[in-house]
TrEMBL record, chain A:
The gene is RRP46. Signal peptide: none annotated. Keywords: Exosome, Nucleus, rRNA processing. The lineage of its organism: Eukaryota, Fungi, Fungi incertae sedis, Zoopagomycota, Kickxellomycotina. This is Exosome non-catalytic core subunit rrp46. Residues 11-131, 134-194 form the Exoribonuclease phosphorolytic domain.
From TrEMBL, chain B:
One of its GO terms (biological process) is exonucleolytic trimming to generate mature 3'-end of 5.8S rRNA from tricistronic rRNA transcript (SSU-rRNA, 5.8S rRNA, LSU-rRNA). It comes from Coemansia aciculifera. GO terms for molecular function: mRNA 3'-UTR AU-rich region binding. Keywords: Cytoplasm, Exosome, Nucleus, RNA-binding, rRNA processing. This is Exosome complex component RRP45.
TrEMBL record, chain C:
Signal peptide: none annotated. Keywords: Cytoplasm, Exosome, Nucleus, RNA-binding, rRNA processing. This is Ribosomal RNA-processing protein 40. It comes from Coemansia pectinata. Transmembrane segments: none annotated.
């Protein structure tokens, strides 16, 4: 079955990103895949409130704001998903008694929002210069009703899918995913197939991010090199 | 310390010193707007406005609901703005001042109560089904003058928005999928745009257009005038601060008239660019 | 230029090449030569060295020091660095000063040139000071002083009155500290002005007239992404406009 937007099954939508476009935030990034678009802003390390500060490490706080309407439990769930994904990858012990605040704003959701949010946050953390163990990249797959598996599904494809799977991986570590979210009915074989497809897709996302970050660093380092 | 702290003494003193000489610390003249960038799309009803270092995103959406019983033939317009901590650290906390509430209320009033949107055109079946149009305004970056940026973003998003087409057959209303039939724009009477001024000095005798965050922190009073493209006044707002003379209000109105035309032109261009 | 290496968090840094070279030249002092010193942006994880921030990888072959130079906007205090801060509160023995880092810095009342118990400066909240970080670690609040405690002289530190202060990225601030910063050199050729650069991303400038101060401030802010030649051009245009 061909996809409505004529993509190959394993093809991502056109990726787009920009780094550091926000002035107030200590780091920010916008990440888009097709029409799905997310902005992530970072404040940190900043002073944590006394009752939440941890004496041996930084506290990581995530806020997720939907594009339409007030935040719901679904968005709270997204917040904890992002926090759990990044909490172990941020070298929090380097900045004890501080707070790293991540604010994620959905600009437009057209499927695969959770992976876009993770990718945007990964870029924003790099832009903010928060020490990270590695880059985190995510991708989503959907198993459609005719058993075909597609990467980076649109909302239309997700609505018609039997199951959807999002995986986030740490760059350069073959230890398995940092984050898995599978919904719907699926067989173990389908899950494994999605795992492999997402792992491949995240490699492409990482290559894309690397180019974007290299561009930013080159631009900023121009004078120091001259 | 990431939370909002006031400007330092030398920033405040220098700003006033510069204003006395008719200049501003960012190099602008007192009646200059910052660089305004408006982009619409790719989906209907999405507009992003960049006003200097201020950035605001507006998103318009709609759904079919029951009308209010006392207004069976009118659609519903919902407005939602919230200063998230993305725009500035600590802005969303309980400490957020009344000034921030005032911003939200002002923009809501401008769009809803100036009757910019034709509410009756949103009726599908009287007393049964109407469109609820929802405007979500997200503040991404607070560099001062959120009111103007938010009003421009909201009106651009409303004009960019398309709702699904509907055909009514007796008691049946058929809502056409946007892939079946071209969606239709909202009926908008006029496009109100806010223009904000800040006043300085013990008598408020110095004024600037489009204050930055630093200027907002130092100003003694502010005044927002809302005009539409027909050169009509839709709203005036002077929320506290020191008293101003009627002459100043007159002067502001004259300046605002010219600015509104410029802003409207920019919105037109942005709308045109998104359809091209 | 061609050999500039840009790293991302998680990238494994290959430091072996350097080791082998030194080992071949002086096999006897191998132990000392193979000690690698890691600077900002790098950590050792088990056997390898990996980057934790993005930026340009630098190394000094003499000291075998490696570090990553990136840009950010949130300051993390480090001992010896000059900072521009704003007094946010006064307490018994001194002041609390916002230097843009996670925690406010302490500034003792006696950390000024010539200050004694009887005669010490009286700073109001909102005063801007130029100081040097003397205590900075992850478990204590930072501390700054407005004089050199070894010589007792101010050495340019102290309260900054008049003039204007603005913020910039930490990367730009570090480049401005360099006496050869092209934008400052170009401006200096055209107009006289004073400048105090805090590596915490705050710059204070003062000139004879308000207009010149604004010009200098805007020129410095504009120089963020410009190379030396573009800086000179930009300054030239600004000066001509004046």
């Amino acid at each position: 079955m061909s996809r409505p937007d004529r993509r190959e099954a394993s093809q991502l939508r056109a990726l787009n990103c920009s780094l550091g476009q926000l002035n107030r935030a200590d780091g920010s990034a916008q990440f888009s895949a097709g029409n799905t678009s997310v902005v992530s802003g970072i404040y940190g390390p900043v002073e944590a409130k006394v009752y939440e500060e941890k004496l041996d490490r930084a506290v990581v706080e995530v806020k997720f704001r939907p594009d339409i309407g007030a935040p719901t439990t679904k968005d709270k769930w997204m917040e904890s998903a992002i926090r759990n994904t990044f909490e172990r990858e941020i070298l929090a012990h380097l900045h004890p008694r501080t707070l790293v605040q991540i604010v994620v704003q959905l600009r437009e959701g057209d499927g695969s929002v959770d992976s876009a949010a993770i990718n945007a946050t990964s870029l924003a953390l790099v832009d903010a210069g928060i020490p990270l163990k590695c880059m985190v990249t995510a991708a989503t797959c959907a198993v459609l009703s005719d058993d075909t598996t597609v990467v980076d599904p649109t909302q239309e494809e997700i609505d018609a899918a039997r199951s959807t799977h999002t995986f986030a991986f740490a760059s350069g570590s073959p230890t398995g995913p940092l984050y898995v979210d599978s919904r719907g009915e699926f067989t173990m074989d389908e899950y494994n197939h999605c795992y492999d497809l997402c792992a491949l897709a995240t490699e492409r996302v990482l290559a894309f991010m690397r180019t974007a970050i290299e561009g930013k660093v080159t631009k900023e380092a121009k004078i120091s090199a001259a | 310390m990431g939370a909002e702290i006031g400007p330092s003494n030398i920033e405040a003193a220098f700003l006033l010193e510069a204003l006395k000489k008719g200049t501003r610390v960012d190099g602008r003249g007192i009646y200059d707007y910052r660089t305004l960038k408006i982009s619409c799309g790719p989906t209907y009803g999405l507009a992003e406005v960049q006003l200097g270092q201020t950035r605001v995103l507006a998103r318009v959406s709609c759904e079919v609901t029951r009308p209010f019983p006392d207004r069976p033939t009118e659609g519903i317009v919902l407005f939602n703005t919230e200063l998230s901590s993305m725009a500035g650290f600590g802005l969303d906390s309980s400490r957020s001042s009344t000034q921030e509430v005032a911003i939200s209320r002002m923009v809501e009033r401008v769009i809803k109560q100036s009757r910019a949107i034709d509410a009756e055109a949103l009726c599908i079946l009287a007393g049964e089904k109407v469109w609820t149009v929802r405007i979500d305004v997200h503040f991404l970056d607070h560099g001062g003058n959120l009111i103007d940026a938010a009003s421009i973003a909201a009106i651009a998003a409303l004009r960019h928005f398309r709702r699904p087409d509907v055909t009514v057959d007796g008691e049946e209303a058929i809502i056409h999928d946007v892939r079946e039939r071209n969606p239709v724009p909202l009926s908008i009477h006029h496009t109100p745009i806010c223009v904000t001024f800040g006043f300085f000095g013990s008598a408020g005798d110095m004024l600037v257009l489009d204050p930055t965050l630093l200027e907002e922190q130092v100003q003694v009073s502010s005044f927002t005038i809302t005009l539409n493209s027909h050169r009509e006044i839709c709203a005036l707002n002077k929320a506290g601060g020191i008293p101003l003379s009627p002459d100043q209000i007159q002067r502001c109105t004259q300046v605002a008239l010219a600015k509104v035309d410029e802003v409207n032109e920019k919105i037109q261009l942005a709308l045109k660019a998104s359809t091209a | 230029m061609a050999s500039v290496k840009i790293v991302l968090p998680g990238d494994i840094i290959d430091t072996r090449r350097e080791e082998e070279d030194t080992a071949q030249q002086e096999p006897n002092v191998e132990d000392e030569a193979t000690v690698i010193r890691l600077g900002p942006g790098l950590v050792q994880s088990s056997e390898s060295v990996s980057a934790v921030t993005a930026g340009v990888l630098h190394s000094n072959s003499e000291t075998n020091r490696w570090w990553v130079a990136g840009n950010k906007r949130r300051y993390v205090a480090a001992v010896g660095e000059p900072v521009v801060g704003v007094v946010v509160a006064r307490h018994g023995e001194g002041y609390r000063v916002d230097i843009g880092s996670a925690h406010d810095a302490l500034l003792p009342q006696l950390a000024f040139e010539g200050a004694t118990k009887r005669n010490k400066p009286n700073l109001a909240v909102g005063t801007v000071v130029y100081g040097r970080v003397v205590v900075a670690n992850s478990v204590m609040d930072p501390e700054i002083e407005c004089f050199n405690s070894n010589t007792g002289k101010s050495e340019g530190y102290g309260e900054l009155s008049e003039g204007f202060m603005f913020k910039c990225s930490l990367g730009l601030a570090r480049r401005l500290i360099d006496t050869k910063a092209p934008v400052l050199a170009a401006l200096g050729n055209g107009v006289p002005f004073e400048v105090a650069v805090g590596v915490n991303g705050r710059v204070w400038v003062n000139a004879e007239s308000v207009a010149t101060t604004i010009l200098v401030a805007n020129a410095i802010r504009n120089s963020e992404y410009l190379d030396a030649k573009q800086c000179r051009q930009m300054v030239k245009e600004l000066l001509e406009k004046q």
